[in-house]
Specification:
Distance between the termini: 30 Å
Strand order of the largest sheet: 2-1-3-4
Order of helices and strands: EHEHHHHHHEEH
Number of strands: 4
CATH architecture: 3-Layer(aba) Sandwich
Largest sheet: 4 strands, mixed
CATH class: Alpha Beta
CATH superfamily: Glutaredoxin
Length: 221
């Protein structure tokens, strides 16, 4: 089966779900294919002030997640008016240099919401990504890729794909299996419902396989 994770790099809720995503990858290694895709937030989805951002962080981190630390709103820049595409474009562009895993996007998220770095600035985002890549990417090359029409088209396409599921909350998980079933989770950050659904889908797929072994293809008439 396939598990597609839609995210916005500096979304606080995506930060909270990362341990869950890592556990799913560990638990279902070899039994499920995992892929992450960028789903850009609209400018109006972002906080309008640091005070508002901190209010959201106290609600998500403190009240809901009971986190021992508070996220850092230092990344917020009022002059950007909710335009924070840079870390997402840089994370996507890093794929072109062999970084298909989670390390670059996680480094960008950490720099923003844990360290308060202003990754909305493309130069800062590139600096963080290059360091996370161990210097294996030249800053100028990564910046050029992040600014390219090709990378922007990929990000726009994955964002449109996210919207096609008629969902609006990130993180989102789309679970699909070999027998055509699909489960959609939007905004959930708990392991239990995701794992229970994956287990059920894997069991159903195994049952179909066992039936085919014993009974072959269905009669044509």
């Amino acid at each position: 089966m396939k598990i597609t994770y839609y995210l916005e790099v500096i979304s606080s809720w995506c930060t909270w779900v990362e341990p869950v995503y890592a556990e799913l990858k560990r638990r279902y290694a070899g039994r499920a294919e995992f892929e992450w895709k960028i789903a850009l937030m609209a400018p109006e989805d972002f906080p309008v002030s640091r005070a508002q951002c901190d209010w959201f962080y106290r609600r998500s981190g403190g009240t809901v997640m009971h986190s021992p630390f508070m996220l850092d709103s230092g990344w917020f820049e009022p002059e950007r008016q909710g335009r924070y595409e840079a870390p997402n474009l840089v994370a996507e562009a890093a794929r072109d240099f062999g970084f298909h895993g989670d390390e670059i996007r996680l480094a960008l998220a950490h720099a923003a919401v844990r360290e308060g770095r202003k990754v909305g600035n493309p130069d800062v985002a590139v600096e963080v990504a290059v360091a996370a890549g161990g210097g294996r990417i030249k800053p100028a090359d990564l910046r050029a890729a992040a600014d390219s029409a090709a990378v922007r088209a990929r990000v726009d396409a994955s964002t449109a794909d996210f919207a096609s599921h008629r969902i609006s909350q990130r993180p989102a998980f789309i679970l699909t299996d070999a027998i055509g079933d699909k489960a959609v989770f939007s905004g959930l950050v708990r392991l239990e419902p995701l794992a229970a659904t994956i287990d059920a889908m894997l069991a159903d797929t195994a049952a179909y396989t066992a039936h085919a072994v014993h009974h072959g293809r269905p009669p044509s008439a």
